[in-house]
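Can you give me the bound-state structure? Components:
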Amino acid sequence: MSVLYLLYAFVVGAFLVGFGMKISARVKRKYGPPVYQPLMDVIKLLSKRSISHGLVQDLGVWMALAGSALLVLAIPVSPFPFINLDLIAFVYVSAIASLGVALGTAQVANPYASIGMARALMLMLGYEVPVLLTVVFFYFSLGTATLADLATLQKEGWFLFKYPLLSAGYYLALLAEMGKPPFDVVTAPSEIASGPMVEYGGKYLGFLVIYAFFHTFVSTALFAVLFLGGGTWWEVLLKQLVLYFSVVVVASSFPRFVSEKAVVYQWIVPSLFVILNFVVVAS
Amino acid sequence: MKAGVLSKIGDILGDFINWARSNSIFVLHYCTGCGAVEISPTLTSRYDMTRFGIQPVATPRQADVLLITGYLSLKTLKRVIWAYEQMSAPKYVVGFGSCTINGGHYWDSYATINLLDLYLPVDLYIAGCMPRPEAIIEGFEVLKKKIKSGEPGGWIDYERRKDWYKANQRRLFGDKI
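Here's the bound-state model for the whole set.
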């Protein structure tokens, strides 16, 4: 059943990424690739020959995949079984995947890879402030932060309408967490040649693309569970689609931040939203 | 009987993989010469190459197709060969513009090469000075058909006749290649 859940997450993630490519193309008045383009990319990449740079790179790829698969299994989507994780444990586990990529990148001697990874870890310092403040808020006001409890607490009203400032803050942090513009400093293709992925090719890149599918699924589903009420699989899928649509529209209309500015922005604007939410709820 | 079924399944799987390969082409556009001017409208809104599954990537490791746009000076050719050898295996080279076929404008220059095919296995030439975006898309359609039919690409030739290619390269660069 868990394997079925992973398969479901893979398909939905691939569909979301393809849908995002199409929407982003339409915003730029292009026709855009077909929705199943990411699936073809994965099949092609996995069928290529590839070059390993060493044992640590191999392990890093597997660590990234395993970390993201663990996160998928922790999201409560109705007919599938899940591990009941606390939100704070969730944030903690979500670092495993990025650290896996960092480990694999450390093996590679390409300077672009090191710059990209340094930026990724720096950006993490930025967006984890509003995310952790959100967790603290859930503990203070509701006394619980397990994902299943949060989903059931929203039976009478979504947190999106109950705590709009909190949602806005978390949404801005989500953009950075998903690595979307204006916060795409990590994989900036025209600037540092796709950053950490610079020396990955063939099957290695294929596995990283699968990791990206899982990552997209987890980030959107987590927002759907935290603020949009969760629910059965088709409700969550609908919410994910709407959310990802808005993310892609924002992403394809804004240029990129300078990397230091992105961190400072994360420290100031989304964190301020979350702190204002504390003040509003307390008064 | 059993072997026949197995080989049939293998054929179907091979066709499927060839279909996926032909519909997902990652291009490293190595903008050596003036041909780079025609790449931007082909990629962006006006002609939109991405609707055919052709996407630009940033590094040779990720790429399937090395698109060489325009003349190659000796210094650039050396880098192009390095980039080509970094790409992972089903890989293709597309020569773009008349400079890669016969030297074009620069046919009697001391600093450029005249025929790319001597140094790298070119799968497809797109002729013209410059070829228009329509011609580029047409050329990629031909390449896609070639990949889909499972025809052996130039990279196999490069592995098989490596001595010949290396000898040609050595004639230009000496032993520094």
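A couple of observations. Chain A touches chain B at residues 21, 25, 28-34, 37, 40-41, 43-44, 47-51, 189-190, 193-194, 197-202, 205 (CB under 8 Å). The radius of gyration of chain A is 18 Å.
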